[in-house]
Amino acid sequence: MKRVIPLIILLAALAAAGFYLYPRLTHKAAPRTAIVLSGNIEAHESLVGFKVPGRIVDLPIQEGQQIEEGALLARLEDSDSLQRVRIDEASVGVRESNLALTLAGTREQEIRALQQNVVDAQADLEQKKIDFERAKNLFAKDEVSAQDRDLAATALKRSQAAYQSAQERHNEAMEGSRKEDIAIARANLKQARASLGLSRIDLSYTVLRAPTSGVVTVRLAELGEVMSPGSPVVTVADLDHVWLRAYIAETDLGGIRFGQAATVTTDTYPGKQYHGRISFIASSAEFTPKSVQTYKERVTLVYRIKIDIDNTNHELKPGMPADAHIDLSPGSQSGPAVPAATPNQ
User: Fold this and answer.
1) How many Å apart are CA 306 and CA 260, to the nearest integer?
2) Predicted confidence (pLDDT) per residue in 124-158, tens digit
3) Average pLDDT of each block of 10 consecutive residues along the chain (345 residues)?
4) CA distance 212 to 232
5) Rounded to whole angstroms, how far apart are CA atoms 322 and 260?
6) Which of 35, 273, 278, 339 is deepest in the core (most CB within 10 A)?
7) What pLDDT score was predicted for residue 34?
8) How confident is the model at residue 77, as a pLDDT?
9) Which CATH number fits domain 29-44+238-343: 2.40.30.170, 2.160.10.10, 3.30.930.10, 3.90.1150.10?
10) Residue 36, strand partner residues
């Protein structure tokens, strides 16, 4: 009897263990119906600054202000730039006048004066010819010296040269300016206009305007501050189009698709849901960001995703933590399947 009791106890324990373990070993886990991801809200942010140095004289915007594309953000002192524009405008005027003068050629009064010089030189030449013939004949009769004949010949040659010179000056005036002079005048005018355009561009750089519509999230400069080129003045964020940056495990990657709907919630607005869609899935894996503190999670390979969110009321701000709920039930997924990704270690 003493041997039977332990056997009965052993059989009872085995039966209890079988009763406890059988349903657990044979039970199939129910398929997951949703994936919950945590991340942070992000937005397109532009650091806007001047391209030229200067002192800020106008800064009409404040942090949190809604602005439209092209709105005035800041203005630099522009007296130096304005003076350069005026100098270049005057230079253009000079070059234009010089080109007009070159194209116009010689004035009519000058042409008539040169023509009169030709007539005068021709009359003098005729007189010198007569004087030379008289001196030559008298020398043949031995009535004048050879010196007198030579002086008459020299006077004739000078008169001929003077007549030819007067005629060439008249012809040059009639032809107008040379093609080379006109080309140089036009090139000088083109150069002056280019310099003026550059000065006006530099002047426009003293005015800073919004590159896009958005909200001024940070004002990084103050009135009267001297700015260097490239130094940011304000940060403009597009809060109409924000997204959630999150990371998904490799085992869950096959359950999501491009364009798949997601519901985003935040601790800031409990109970309020924001509708979004998956717009990006990384093609390569990466280690969990170092912001995750535990070693086990930091060494896990994950894939970065983006979920675009409707934010018409600008309630979601960059840096805000949020959770995304992705429905995995049949019929909830849309878009093409995620392509196979290669881990990037």
Assistant:
1) 11
2) 878 888 887 887 787 787 777 888 778 888 888 88
3) 63 67 55 81 92 94 91 94 95 92 72 76 82 80 79 85 81 70 90 95 95 91 93 92 90 87 91 92 78 52 90 88 86 49 40
4) 16
5) 18
6) 278
7) 81
8) 95
9) 2.40.30.170
10) 325
d(CA 253, CA 228): 47
Cα dihedral angle (319, 320, 323, 327), rounded to 10 degrees?
-80
In 10 A of CB 187, how many CB atoms? 12
170 Cβ contact list (under 8 Å, min separation 6): 111, 114, 115, 117, 118
Under 8 Å between Cβ of 48 and 236: yes
User: Which CATH code, of 2.40.50.100, 3.40.50.2300, 3.30.420.40, 3.10.50.40, is assigned to 45-78+205-234?
Assistant: 2.40.50.100
Its pTM stands at 0.61
Q: What DSSP character marks residue 317?
A: -
CA distance linking residue 65 with residue 235, whole number of Å: 11
Q: What are phi and psi of 267, to 5 degrees?
A: -75, -20
| DSSP secondary structure string for all residues of 61-110 | --TT-EE-TT-EEEEE--HHHHHHHHHHHHHHHHHHHHHHHHHH-S-HHH
d(CA 97, CA 102): 9
Task: Give the pLDDT of residue 84.
Answer: 95
